[in-house]
Amino acid sequence: MSDPVFFSDVGSVILSDIAELAGINLPEGVDGSRIVSSAAPLETAGPDDIAYMDNPRYAAMLAETKAGICLVSPRFADRVPSSTLSLVTPVPYRVFAQVLARLHPSALRPRPLFSGSGVSPGAVVHPDARLETGVAVDPGAVIGAGAEIGSGTVIGANAVIGAEVRIGRDCSIGPNVTISHALLGNRIVVHPGASIGQDGFGFAMGPGGHLKVPQVGRVIIQDDVEIGANTTIDRGASRDTIIGEGTKIDNLVQIAHNVVIGRHCVIVAQVGISGSTTLGDFVVFGGQSAVVGHVTIGTGAQFAARSAVAENVPAGAKWGGAPAQPIKEWMKEVAWLKMMISSRSPGDRKSSSGNTGDDSQ
């Protein structure tokens, strides 16, 4: 079996450019014209590679790395081997990401699978749809009546773009994505299997049965949003569901109708946000968190994984737990519970199992 290299479009960057990205000066005597053409993790990097370090879990790997160059945060700078050139920056991961983008530009967003531009054989585009020059449509995709798609956008195989949908320029819509009743801005990435604009979960409950509430709103997604695989974003019931610019949404996230998400939020995998909830800018949710409907989350709030949010949360708060509460209070409760369990005698723990009697007959 062959061993393909999926990101073979390797560019190059010189050392002085990396220093400029990091906002630092190169050490005295270092050749700024040195070419860097590959990046690697600490444990496998060689003399021609650049690596990065900003996590104490990898301190042992840093001490043994063979990397030629290492972007490193100040607290670990004294642990870099003498054979490795250290570039000290408070944001090594961010600079490393910029270097990777220059080395492998095709990895920034999904590319066409079939052809660079134009409508591929097997795709179906309604005559009333309008595609600007430079749109690529892969086989099996369906684009409905009145849809408008901007130049540089890629529509993946078997994707379905509904009637009157608007998609801006330089977007990537992955395979098997469905988009309806939605307006998307520029430079948006939607990964495979995501569904955007379907009915919200709206029913008027009653003893005689549950009456469906028509969902007549839209989904509006602003510029530079990224949406993970198999995520679902419901359209609004009467208001619009809105995703603010720069927000990053992981795989397997559920966003319900009428939700408004601010700018540059980060929502990790398996989060569920119930209807009519509002998030401010720069909100962060750890994985598997859940939010009840009709609450407001303030700007900059952060939530630990598996948080269960059942009330309004002020701006800048850090919460965790189920039900979620300020992180310090939650950690005190966890510590107290752990102490109580560890302080009980083995006999107490055995009796609490409910199996202290003689089960023989």
Automatic annotation (TrEMBL):
Among CDD domains, the record links this protein to:
LbH_LpxD
Report keywords, A-Z. Answer: Acyltransferase, Lipid A biosynthesis, Lipid biosynthesis, Lipid metabolism, Repeat, Transferase
Molecular function in Gene Ontology: N-acyltransferase activity; UDP-3-O-[(3R)-3-hydroxyacyl]-glucosamine N-acyltransferase activity
Q: Which GO terms describe its biological process?
A: lipid A biosynthetic process
Which reaction(s) does its UniProt entry say it catalyses? Answer: a UDP-3-O-[(3R)-3-hydroxyacyl]-alpha-D-glucosamine + a (3R)-hydroxyacyl-[ACP] = a UDP-2-N,3-O-bis[(3R)-3-hydroxyacyl]-alpha-D-glucosamine + holo-[ACP] + H(+)
Top-rank taxon of the source lineage equals Bacteria
Annotated stretches, region: Disordered: 342-361
**Entry's InterPro entries?**
Hexapep, Hexapep_transf_CS, LpxD, Trimer_LpxA-like_sf, UDP_GlcNAc_AcTrfase_non-rep
User: What PANTHER family does its record include?
Assistant: UDP-3-O-ACYLGLUCOSAMINE N-ACYLTRANSFERASE (PTHR43378), UDP-3-O-ACYLGLUCOSAMINE N-ACYLTRANSFERASE 1, MITOCHONDRIAL-RELATED (PTHR43378:SF2)
Query: Which NCBIfam families does the record match to this protein?
Result: lipid_A_lpxD, PRK00892.1
Q: From the Swiss-Prot or TrEMBL record, give the protein name.
A: UDP-3-O-acylglucosamine N-acyltransferase
